[in-house]
Design a protein that fits this description.
Layout (H helix, E strand, L loop, with lengths): L7 E7 L2 E7 L2 H8 L12 E3 L2 H9 L5 E4 L3 H7 L24 H4 L21 H69 L1
Antiparallel strand pairs: 1-2, 1-3, 2-4
């Protein structure tokens, strides 16, 4: 048989009353008071050990016991006498205490909040401009390469023509030089015969 948790008595002020509850933990006390804020962290709630104050709440665990702080006459006497009682603004209204849950709902689990959908992922950056720029650069490189290769082919063709021209000129000059030598020999022989006559 599971061991029952030890009850502690907690108190929080509600208007002119104190709300007591016997609960196993501060969290359970906040649930009994119907508070969604941590009243203990702000100092608005505390644990009580006085036997005169804890007897009734311990006898009624989980039930909120309200006790007036002072008499109605004391409350009225505490009001300022020279100024009318200011009207309370809606946002300054006293916090209300929810009634203790019935046995049917006491064991029912608290409703779970709806799951928050995860944020939509950011859209991926557009790569289109980069792809277009890279494509243009590749096209420029290809055009330059083809133009350079065409010039190289033209240069090779010109070199071949120059070598052929130089070879043809060398052969023609060699033939012409032989003709000059032959003609010079004939002329010199003819001049020698002419002088001898």
């Amino acid at each position: 048989m599971p061991r029952q948790q030890k009850l502690k008595v907690y108190r929080t002020p509600i208007g002119f009353h104190d709300a007591y509850v016997a609960a196993p933990s501060q969290k359970a006390a906040l649930e009994a008071w119907g508070s969604d804020k941590n009243l203990f962290a702000s100092g608005a709630a505390e644990q009580v050990d006085d036997p005169a104050l804890t007897a009734e709440p311990v006898a009624n665990p989980g039930k909120v016991i309200r006790r007036a702080r002072g008499t109605a006459a004391e409350h009225m006497a505490a009001l300022p006498k020279d100024s009318p009682r200011p009207k309370r603004k809606p946002e300054q209204a006293e916090p209300t205490i929810s009634r203790p849950r019935s046995r049917k709902t006491a064991n029912r689990p608290a409703p779970t909040p709806a799951p928050v959908p995860p944020p939509k992922p950011k859209p991926r950056p557009d790569r289109g401009p980069l792809d277009r720029a890279e494509s243009q650069l590749a096209e420029i490189d290809r055009t330059h390469r083809e133009a350079t290769e065409a010039i190289a082919r033209q240069q090779a063709e010109l070199d071949r023509k120059r070598r052929k021209l130089e070879n043809d000129q060398a052969r023609e000059r060699e033939k012409a030089e032989r003709r000059v030598d032959t003609a010079r020999e004939k002329y010199e022989k003819a001049m020698a015969i002419w002088r001898a006559d």
